[in-house]
Amino acid sequence: MPFVMNNVILAKSKAFALRIIRLYQYLCDNKREFIMSKQILRSGTSVGANVKEGVSAQSKADFYAKMYIAYKEANETEYWLELLYESGYIDAKAFRSIYSDCKEIIKILAAITKNQKTN
């Protein structure tokens, strides 16, 4: 995997995790929502944690495994975002913004894992 791609997914997944943390704080403090917010906090921050682990993987197989876990966590986060929006906990503007970031990360991780699987 090119070093530049590592930097892109590292930066994007960390920035996304920070947005998720702020969303979690908002949901707890302003909406008094504690169940879905905890789920999205876990999955949304796990994306970046797994990417970070994958970048320092000991083998190609380990790298692939960590990136694939990050991909699955990003997909789970997408689901929680949809539920939060459709249940009225977040408005359309907030949803579109963070959802588009999530979709972008999913696309990058899908490309990374597909590339690793074929190599």
Structure description:
With 119 residues, the chain is mainly α. It has a single domain (3-118), classed as Up-down Bundle (de novo design (two linked rop proteins)), CATH 1.20.1440.60. It contains 4 helices and no strands. The longest helix is centred in the first third of the chain and has 28 residues, at 3-30. It is elongated and about 45 Å long. The mean pLDDT is 94.
Q: Topology, pairings included?
A:
Layout: H1 3-30, H2 35-55, H3 60-86, H4 92-118
Helix pairs in contact: 1-2, 1-4, 2-3, 3-4
CATH topology-level name: de novo design (two linked rop proteins)
What is the CATH-assigned architecture? Answer: Up-down Bundle
Oligomerization state of this entry?
single chain
The chain-level structural class is mainly alpha
| Rg of Cα set | 15 Å
Mean pLDDT: 94
CATH class group: Mainly Alpha
Short key terms for the protein model shown above:
119 residues, mainly alpha, de novo design (two linked rop proteins)
What's this, in brief?
By secondary structure, the protein is mainly α. The protein has helices at 3-30, 35-55, 60-86, 92-118.
